[in-house]
Specification:
2 copies of one chain form a homodimer. In chain A, 54% of the residues are buried. Chain A is built from 11 helices and 13 strands. By secondary structure, chain A is of the alpha+beta class. In chain A, helix 2 (73-89) packs parallel to helix 3. At the A-B interface, helix 1, strand 2, strand 3, helix 2 and strand 4 of A face helix 1, strand 2, strand 3, helix 2 and strand 4 of B. Strand 2 of chain A pairs antiparallel with strand 3 (52-61) of chain B, so a sheet runs across the interface.
C-alpha cells in the first residue's frame, strides 16, 4: 500500500522545468476529438463545435487534503483527477480534458513525481480525458496539486443545482461514509506503525473502506444510466464535501426544503461494522464523512418507477416547501434540522 | 506602495469556505456573452458557439514567484491574472474567463484576501474577463495562487509556436528587462529598510521599472494591432520566462535557427541608466530578465513594410536555417550561441 521508500533519486534541478514537463507528459496521448492542441504551446486549443463547455477546478494541499504517509503518490494523482471529473459529471456532462499544476518542495525526487503522474495517466486513460496543459513549480513546503477539468454537454442535458421542485424525490448514487472510515482506519494504522514499526498492518477487513479512500471512482456512468432510464434530474450536485452540506446546498439553491430519511441512507456492511468497532454513529458518518465521489440529484415523482429498485440509486428523501427547512427524519420519526458539517478545510486548519 | 499593515482582521474560520467564496466573488459580475453560468455550481458553463476554446494555467507560489514584503496583495492579484491572459494573447486569441484557486495559511485575515481579490477584479474589469469558478483552501505555508484562463479564437486566427519559417522576421512587442530591474530595485529597498526601518524609499527614478514589476499589463491590444496592419504572425510565444529561452523555444518548435541582433533589443532609458547604476549588462538583463509580459512573434519578410517603424514593435532578428543554431549577433558583429537562462523556478529553489 505504501510507496517504495528506496527508489533511485533523480534531482529535479538536473532536468529543469521544461525538461520535467516534457518528461512527465511524453506518454500522455491526446485522444479526444475535441482536443486540437494539448501540452506544448502557450494555451491548449479545444474545439467543442456547438456544445457547451464545462469548467471546474480543485486544489489539493499536502497536510490539508492528503497525508503522504498513507496516501501513495500514484493514488493521489488518480484521486486528484477524480475530484475534478466528479464535478463535471455533477452537471450531467462529459469530461474531456484536464490541466494539472503542481508545486512541490525539493524533497521530492523525479521518481516521486513520476508516480504521481502515473496515477494521473491511469485516470486519464480510464476516464478518456486528455491532459492538455499545466504548470510545474516549486513550493516552500509540501506538495500542492491544482487541477482544472473541462467538459462538454448539450444544452438540454445540463443539470444545475437550482432546479429541484417541491415533492421531487432526492436520490443518491452508491453508498455513503466508506471513504471517511477508510481514512480513520489508515490513520489508526499509521499511529500503530509509529508506535511499533514492526507491526504488520491488517487491512483485510477494511478493503472496501480503504479503496474508497485511496482509489475513489467518479460516476462517469451516471449520465448513461440516466439516459437509459429516460430520466433527467431536476437538480444535481457532487457530494464529496459531505451529504449534509450538499443537501443544504441543493435545497438553498433551488428554494425548497428537504426531508432526508435516516433509514434510507445507503451503507455498506463494512461501514456498519467498522462504525461499531470505532464506536461511531453510522448516520453521522454517512451525513458528514465526505469524500464519497457520488452524486446527489432530484427527480420528479413521476420518475419513481424508473428509479426504485435500481441498485445504483437510493431514494433517500423528498423536497418540501421552503419553510419546512432541511431536516433529517430519524428512525424514531423525529425531525432534526440538518446542519452542514462538511469538510471545511479552513476550519480544519484553524483547529490544528 | 506597501499594503496597510494595520487593517481590521476577520478570521477566515468565522466565514467558512463557502462563506468566503461567496464573500469574495459577490461583486464579480459575468459579462461575457459566452459565460452562461459562472461561480456557484459544480462547474461553469461556457458557450463558444463555433469558435475554438483556448485554455492555459499558471501557478504562483509565495517565496518562489513573489515576495509579499514588496508585492502588495492587490498588485499580486492583478499580476496573477496578467500572467495567464498573456498566454491566451500569445495564441492570438481573446481571453474571456478565468478560474482562481488559492491556498493560504491562516496568517492571512479576510481583509488580506479581499485585497488580493480586489486586484483580480480590477484585472477582470480592465481586460473584460469573467471569474467563473475556483477553489479556496488552506496551505501549510504561505500563499499559492493557481489561475486558469479560458479564451476563444477563430481557427484561422490562431498562431502557434511552430510556424516560423527561414527568413521570417523576429519581432518583439514593448521593451525588455524593466520588470527584472524593478525587482532588483525593490529588493534593494527591502534590504535598506531591514537595516534601517526609518529609511524612506526613493523610487521616483525607477517608476517605470517598478510598475513593470508590480503592475504588468498583458498585450490584449496585440491581436487588434495585427489585424489593423493585416499581418498574421507565422509563430508567436509569450516571453515572460525570458527572451532567450523563448527565442530558443520558437526556433526549436519551428525547426529553424535564429539570429538576434544585440543592437536591436528595445530598452527603456530607465533600463539603461539603472543597469549602469547596478553595474549590470543591459543585454543580459534584456535577454534573461523575464517577467516582461510581451509577445515574441515571427512574420514573413513581405510584412516588413507593415511592421517597421511601428512604435509597438521592434524587429530584433530573423530566422535562419536550423543548422545555423540560435545566436546573438553582438554590437561587435560577433556571433554567440544563445542559451536559455530563463527563470527556472525549480533551479532557483535548489540554489536557495
Amino acid at each position: 500500500m505504501l510507496e517504495d521508500k528506496t527508489p533511485n533519486k533523480t534531482s529535479l534541478a538536473e532536468l529543469g522545468e521544461f525538461g520535467l514537463i516534457n518528461h512527465l507528459t511524453q506518454h500522455f496521448k491526446c485522444e479526444q476529438d475535441s482536443t486540437e492542441v494539448g501540452v506544448g504551446d502557450d494555451a491548449a486549443v479545444i474545439d467543442n463545435k456547438d456544445k457547451k463547455t464545462l469548467v471546474t477546478t480543485d486544489m489539493l494541499v499536502e497536510g490539508i487534503h492528503f497525508n503522504l504517509s498513507y496516501m501513495p503518490l500514484k493514488h493521489l494523482g488518480y484521486k486528484a483527477v477524480m475530484v475534478n471529473l466528479s464535478d463535471i459529471y455533477a452537471m450531467n456532462g462529459t469530461a474531456n480534458q484536464i490541466t494539472v499544476s503542481i508545486a512541490l518542495s525539493n524533497r521530492f525526487p523525479l521518481e516521486a513525481i513520476e508516480e504521481l503522474y502515473a496515477g494521473i495517466q491511469l485516470a486519464c486513460n480510464t476516464y478518456k480525458v486528455d491532459l492538455i496543459g499545466g504548470d510545474t513549480t516549486s513550493s516552500q513546503k509540501g506538495l500542492i496539486l491544482s487541477i482544472t477539468a473541462i467538459g462538454t454537454a448539450n444544452e438540454e442535458d445540463i443539470v444545475y443545482r437550482n432546479g429541484a421542485k417541491e415533492n421531487d424525490l432526492l436520490v443518491v448514487t452508491g453508498d455513503l461514509g466508506a471513504a471517511y472510515l477508510g481514512l480513520q482506519v489508515l490513520e489508526r494504522e499509521r499511529q500503530v506503525f509509529s508506535a511499533n514499526p514492526n507491526a504488520q498492518p491488517d487491512l483485510d477487513t477494511y478493503t472496501y473502506l480503504v479503496e474508497r479512500q485511496l482509489k475513489p471512482e467518479a460516476r462517469k456512468d451516471l449520465s448513461g444510466l440516466l439516459k437509459e432510464l429516460d430520466v433527467k434530474p431536476t437538480s444535481m450536485i457532487d457530494i464529496s464535501d459531505g451529504l449534509s452540506s450538499e443537501v443544504i446546498h441543493l435545497s438553498k439553491n433551488s428554494g425548497v426544503g428537504c426531508n432526508v430519511f435516516e433509514d434510507k441512507l445507503p451503507l455498506d456492511p463494512q461501514v456498519i461494522s467498522t462504525c461499531e468497532e470505532f464506536n461511531m454513529n453510522s448516520t453521522v458518518v454517512a451525513l458528514n464523512g465526505g469524500e464519497d465521489y457520488e452524486q446527489l440529484f432530484t427527480v420528479a415523482q413521476s420518475d419513481f418507477e424508473k428509479i426504485k429498485g435500481n441498485p445504483n440509486f437510493s431514494i433517500i428523501g423528498h423536497m418540501t416547501d421552503k419553510n419546512e427547512g432541511v431536516n433529517l427524519i430519524t428512525r424514531a420519526s423525529q425531525k432534526m434540522e440538518l446542519t452542514a458539517q462538511g469538510w471545511d478545510a479552513l476550519l480544519k486548519k484553524e483547529k490544528e
